[in-house]
Amino acid sequence: xxxxxxxxxxxxxxxxxxxxxxxxxxxxxxxxxxxxxxxxxxxxxxxxxxxxxxxxxxxxxxxxxxxxxxxxxxxxxxxxxxxxxxxxxxxxxxxxxxxxxxxxxxxxxxxxxxxxxxxxxxxxxxxxxxxxxxxxxxxxxxxxxxxxxxxxxxxxxxxxxxxxxxxxxxxxxxxxxxxxxxxxxxxxxxxxxxxxxxxxxxxxxxxxxxxxxxxxxxxxxxxxxxxxxxxxxxxxxxxxxxxxxxxxxxxxxxxxxxxxxxxxxxxxxxxxxxxxxxxxxxxxxxxxxxxxxxxxxxxxxxxxxxxxxxxxxxxxxxxxxxxxxxxxxxxxxxxxxxxxxxxxxxxxxxxxxxxxxxxxxxxxxxxxxxxxxxxxxxxxxxxxx
Amino acid sequence: xxxxxxxxxxxxxxxxxxxxxxxxxxxxxxxxxxxxxxxxxxxxxxxxxxxxxxxxxxxxxxxxxxxxxxxxxxxxxxxxxxxxxxxxxxxxxxxxxxxxxxxxxxxxxxxxxxxxxxxxxxxxxxxxxxxxxxxxxxxxxxxxxxxxxxxxxxxxxxxxxxxxxxxxxxxxxxxxxxxxxxxxxxxxxxxxxxxxxxxxxxxxxxxxxxxxxxxxxxxxxxxxxxxxxxxxxxxxxxxxxxxxxxxxxxxxxxxxxxxxxxxxxxxxxxxxxxxxxxxxxxxxxxxxxxxxxxxxxxxxxxxxxxxxxxxxxxxxxxxxxxxxxxxxxxxxxxxxxxxxxxxxxxxxxxxxxxxxxxxxxxxxxxxxxxxxxxxxxxxxxxxxx
Lengths: 385, 385
What we know:
alpha/beta; homodimer; 6-stranded mixed β-sheet; 19 strands
């Protein structure tokens, strides 16, 4: 055991890890909270759309993920307010809702399935013709044949959120160290700290592993639990004379590919997202950019005149059952808390994850709706390859 | 008149201005040569393909530009060797030639016209079927219907060239000042120097205006002589497992748009170029990127898997007759030497421009083949709006 067993080390300063560190310090879960990341706020949290839209985001059959997402969405307004209050910074929460649209006749029935989902959750949704959809969002093009307005969905500016979480964490006393963690160390069946790339060791009584797709390499017991699922996004900006961007998040399926456009301030849109299972290869590909532009243009033709400001790729942390892994993974040392595997839902699930981490670190009961993400399920789950 | 009338100031540190400054210092044309640019080596010289391919580049009917290009191409091998020797740095000259290809049947006759041009210049060219073209460049896709091999064309790495020219200039004694020039000043009908944005004045007996598209604002007598013609380029890179890039410069007309792919070291290609008359608007547009990718992919389908490393825009200096303006513009103060308006041929025409500048500054006779670029023609030329 290290000297300072009352220290909590959080590995990974994306939205999940920074939230975990902030919550740990805020709730006095430890004498000292250290957040370690070689490049805080980069990674999948930086390369994200920021949609808080669990139902239009859910794949068919992902009922448990949908429940987690709905539970987290319900927490988001209060979470956003708490982060803004604690940091004194905005997170850019948007409440204009989502408009899901289809351009192929064959996709129209998908909308009906989404409506069923929404009604099962007691949530509002309205079926629109193409013309009705264009009346609400004049940026939609003539190819749009039908739509679905989901007024309760939210969106957040992931980059503002990262900055606000970092400020909130530091105000609460979190110490940020910008260096790589090599491994979680253990002694007598319990975590003893982390080894840093510099050769130093940071003693800790509890280690929260929140390193997203990079988490699996930090301790042998985590091996295979999470894998990188590459995604590319583009950021575009309306120019003088351009057709204004939509005010709602627009989602569509074009040629079988899901595409979204999430509004940001300043006439900007985040377009996403591709999906590849190609390991830690961070290249933005020609084909990915071509598809994102072509698919989005089909739905929002005015973007042809927009400025292309940025293209970026990162790695969603994917798990075998597409659910996050939160808590003590069976077979890991005492004091090692997993907090990874949020897949393409990291921003959405952060509000719920905050409450889970608070419960794990303080011994309070786990929050409602979080059971599906419990690491205890891994006793029976087959790990991914 | 300023104190130091033996000083030459060159405004603009792109390939043309840096070459002019180097030549001025090398040939002892002045006691001191100062090269002034707020951001040396940026601008159109940075955002370029580096093709040295006058004939496949020439638009129909641009006979004088073609002659200038041919005269400059002939000088390029010696110019490249001189720059490399003077700087101790490579310029990345490539001698693999150009392959011009067509994908639409209607464009085949364009190739015949280019062949006529080439033969009139005594230059080699070979008509190829699509299959023959693919045999030489396996990266070419099945859409390619015919081709034309131009073995004598060259290409240069514009960014290596910029670095080498800068080094050559500094070794020859050129002083580089990184600040904006506001205007060329005059006194009694002769230039007296330049006013800098800092409020300082730099005295000079001769001022070479080589600020590309920005040149027109530097003295009232230059107003309207040059305008910005925006161009966008992309840089892509073959990845592990990608189809290798072509070894030759590949040019094509796709859907009426000219596109080129110029090889660079490291499996890279520079793709270009769009063309817009929209003033000094440096945005890279979604539509521009979409067209460049789609058109290039039509010809080189393997790039879909390449990494998209960079997108950039800058401003070619366009003139009313598409020819550069070199020398004393009628009506300007004595000692003001224009050296701008190279349009989309700045890199190609640099070798000839070097000799023109040397002649202008030392009083030697103008080089053969340069007459069409003489600023003296502007006595009769209508200026562009």
